[in-house]
Amino acid sequence: MSTANHLLAAALVLACSSASAARTDITIGMQLEPPNLDPTGAAAAAIDEVVYANIFEGLTRFLPDGSVAPALASSWEVSEDGLQYSFTLRTGVSFHDGTGFDADDVVFSLDRARAEDSTNAQKGLFAGIDSVEATDPATVVVTLSQANGALPFNLAWGDAVIVAPESIEQAKTAPVGTGPFVFSKWVQGDQVEIVRNPDYWGEPAQLEKATFKFISEPTAAFAALMAGDVDAFPVYPAPENLPQLDADPRFSVVLGSTEGETILSINNKLAPFDNKLVRQAVAHAIDRSAIIDGAMFGYGTPIGSHFAPHHPAYLDLTGNSPYDPERARALLAEAGLADGFETTLKLPPPSYARRGGEIIAAQLREVGIKVEISNLEWAQWLEQVFRGKDYGLTIVSHTEPMDIGIYANPEYYFQYDNAELQQLMVDLEATAEDDARSEILQQAQTIISEDYVNGYLFQLAKTGVANAKISGLWENAPTQANDLTKVFWQD
């Protein structure tokens, strides 16, 4: 073969290999932009959707099936009385800025999360910790005030990730973690970009770069998918398009479950909602099926309490609050409100909230409850509703795993104060045996259902859409995350 032919053959081989090489970048669509990027200081699920397992890691972590696995802790031992957990840490781990990870960082992170002035949205996860001690650079001993078999589970939450004192001040805008991806840039109002960490302690990511693109409008989300501007929308906001996308061979549609209890949250301290009869009237005025069909196009499982149907301890309590507008009107009359009343319905941006809010407002009007709708941006919702408690009603999906414990916190935004429920959560923490824990959880579900704390609507389905060549995205959502650690493009 001549030199020219050799060169031509080599060029053809190079061209073919380039054409067939798998992509190493991905663009992920998200409906909500996070208010900041520090998962230890704010409540927004969108934060974890960017940073969980990608940028930040905890001592433990959730796997796609919801089980808990070692992360920055390679193993742990529990004392016979259940009061001490001794965590053995991985060695040779560095934060993205080059500072070393050791036991002092764990002490700093857990003490910061449980401090009196902590802004951690799930501060209750750490309430049972009596002390955190670094016995050597690779060992941390956590001592509890009472036995808690759920500690490894609690430490897998995004709120419990390990941060460093050297970089925590910049976490909101330029987070520094130990994960397989490094923060690159944030174009506010548009996207966050992360890149592969070349010095990651564990199995390196296959993707070299990932971009999280924020698209709030369902119609724009559909257009972006069709145009290829985004490669995947793990929580797709326009369920009405799913049949069309499912029929298109370019896409894969995966329907899974989430931890998202979607509720009509009620301000329990605001009159007249401080009257159980009024809350019960609201519950009977709601037609769950109409909301699931109208807002979610049929995707969602009705719930009657704050608990995920896929959990072994789940009780179907929807029978406590069937759609019965006549009963709702009678309850309002019994409460001295035969002529109804006016209240606010403050809605965050997700389509389930905006669409569901219109349907619920119409249903409440049918029984005499006049609702003034306010559509809020996410930062406004966090400020007014979640932190300010300035609302009558709101709709939100609580995506944290098995978070019924929030009902034991009277300062939580729906301001429910029940000593019996609070004691049950104390008992739950002290109980390790599965059957006994399930019994306590079922008692708790029953109490909040029969107290009509909130209007329980449906469990949010995970309606994911992705390019058919993408592998490794989570099918279900055991926590709020777009975990890209195992994601790759097929050739």
Helices and strands in order:
Layout: H1 3-20, E1 25-30, H2 45-51, E2 60-62, E3 68-70, E4 73-78, E5 84-89, H3 103-114, E6 129-136, E7 139-144, H4 151-154, E8 181-187, E9 191-196, E10 209-214, H5 218-227, E11 232-233, H6 242-246, E12 251-266, H7 276-285, H8 288-296, E13 301-302, H9 325-334, E14 341-347, H10 351-366, E15 369-375, H11 378-387, E16 393-398, H12 419-429, H13 434-450, E17 455-467, E18 470-471, E19 488-489
Parallel strand pairs: 1-10, 14-15, 14-16
Antiparallel strand pairs: 2-3, 4-5, 5-7, 6-7, 8-9, 9-10, 11-17, 12-16, 12-17, 13-17, 18-19
Helix pairs in contact: 7-9, 8-10, 12-13
Q: Give the mean pLDDT.
A: 93
**CATH H-level superfamily title of the largest domain:** Dipeptide-binding Protein, Domain 3
Helix content: 25-40%
Described by the principal axes of the CA atoms, the overall outline is globular
Kindly name the structural category: alpha+beta
Would you identify the regions where 5 or more consecutive residues have pLDDT less than 50? 2-19
Q: Looking at CATH, which topology of the largest domain would you report?
A: Dipeptide-binding Protein, domain 3
CATH class of the largest domain: Alpha Beta
The span between the termini is 31 Å
* Beta-strand residue percentage: 15-25%
Q: Give the number of DSSP strands.
A: 19
| Gross CATH architecture of the largest domain | Roll
